[in-house]
Write a structure and sequence with these properties.
This protein has 160 residues and is mainly alpha-helical. It has one domain: Up-down Bundle (Hypothetical Protein Ta1238, Chain: A), CATH 1.20.1200.10. The chain has five helices and four strands; from the N terminus they run ββαααβααβ. The strands form two sheets. The protein has a two-stranded antiparallel ribbon. Strands 3-4 form a two-stranded antiparallel sheet. Helix 1 runs antiparallel to helix 2, helix 1 runs antiparallel to helix 4 and helix 2 runs antiparallel to helix 5. The longest helix has 25 residues. The radius of gyration is 16 Å and the shape is elongated.
Length: 160
């Protein structure tokens, strides 16, 4: 049954395996990140998203059986987060993030990254992924949140 399998760096695996599920979620997130990049009005946001897309291929490489994510790759995302935390206002309440195409696309990408992170956690618990790669995805969802704030600037607050 060849139609139900795919190639990875570590060999053929079932298309419904947790490895392929995780890589697929990252692929979906990468597509939405690319859309957000195309629609973004801010060069700084586009540049970060472009680099994120490249780094997501590295994450997938690890999950496919290749080399592990490095400490320097985690440091890169932490640096981006630190810079953005100094540039965007801290939200004091819940806000509706989706106010236009770029912010909506970033929001969808963030949600898909969170799913990919849950799948990566399963890989980690089964010895198929490093702690660094799961941490990187966790930080990516926060980075996408910060980029959404940077892109949209003003948001509708939700009060209960």
């Amino acid at each position: 049954m060849n139609f139900g399998e795919t190639n990875t760096l570590s060999g053929r695996v079932s298309k419904d395996s947790i490895v392929v599920e995780c890589i697929g979620a990252i692929d979906e997130a990468n597509a939405f990140i690319g859309l957000a990049k195309v629609f973004s009005r801010k060069e700084e946001v586009r540049e970060i998203l472009r680099e994120v897309q490249k780094k997501l291929f590295r994450i997938c490489e690890e999950f496919a059986g290749g080399r592990k994510v490095s400490e320097s790759e985690l440091e890169w995302i932490e640096l981006q987060i630190k810079k953005l935390e100094n540039e965007v206002p801290k939200m004091k309440s819940f806000v509706i993030l989706e106010k236009d195409s770029p912010t909506a696309l970033l929001s969808v990408a963030r949600a898909i990254v969170r799913r990919a992170e849950r799948r990566a956690l399963t890989l980690y618990r089964n010895g198929l992924a490093s702690e660094l790669s799961v941490d990187w995805l966790n930080k990516l969802s926060y980075l996408l949140y910060l980029l959404t704030l940077k892109e949209g600037e003003n948001f509708e607050e939700v009060h209960f």
